[in-house]
Design a protein that fits this description.
Layout: H1 2-7, E1 12-16, H2 20-32, E2 36-40, H3 43-53, E3 57-61, H4 69-78, E4 87-91, H5 96-104, E5 109-112, H6 117-134
Parallel strand pairs: 1-2, 1-3, 3-4, 4-5
Helix pairs in contact: 3-4
């Protein structure tokens, strides 16, 4: 079990979701795995944090007020400084259309809520290990 504590130590993970419960749950799970967790309520709140903190991976809820997940993802991916950050879309809907739209705006993966600890850690493993192998 002790491996899990340090497996992701030093990783900056951002959770953008308008649900306080989702943010808290994800934060707890990820902090236990050694991650530094940044949270934001929506895209507007997230963008300044992304630009100053440069997270290693971002989880974005699709349905949010002001700036939704697709718009936020698109803005992050269109900025050359941040386009390499893996983005995982979070949604309570498990639709083909949502998945396709997520791909169009540049998301690497799509998780359906409620997600498990393994879903989150698995996504981080997939995208950050791939990134390490690419370099």
């Amino acid at each position: 079990m002790s491996d899990n504590q340090t497996e992701f130590s030093g990783l900056k993970v951002m959770i953008i979701d308008d649900s306080k419960t989702i943010r808290r749950t994800a934060e707890k799970l990820l902090t236990k795995a050694g991650c530094e967790v940044l949270t934001a309520e929506d895209g507007f709140e997230a963008l300044p944090t992304i630009s100053t903190q440069h997270p290693d991976i971002i989880f974005i809820d699709i349905l949010m007020p002001r700036l939704d997940g697709y718009q936020t993802c698109s803005l992050v991916k269109s900025n050359p400084s941040f386009s390499d950050i893996p983005i995982i879309m979070l949604s309570s809907k498990d639709g083909l259309f949502d998945r396709a739209k997520g791909r169009v705006v540049g998301a690497e993966q799509y998780l359906t809520k409620p997600f498990t600890r393994e879903d989150l850690l698995g996504a981080i493993r997939t995208h950050l290990l791939n990134k390490a192998e690419d370099t």
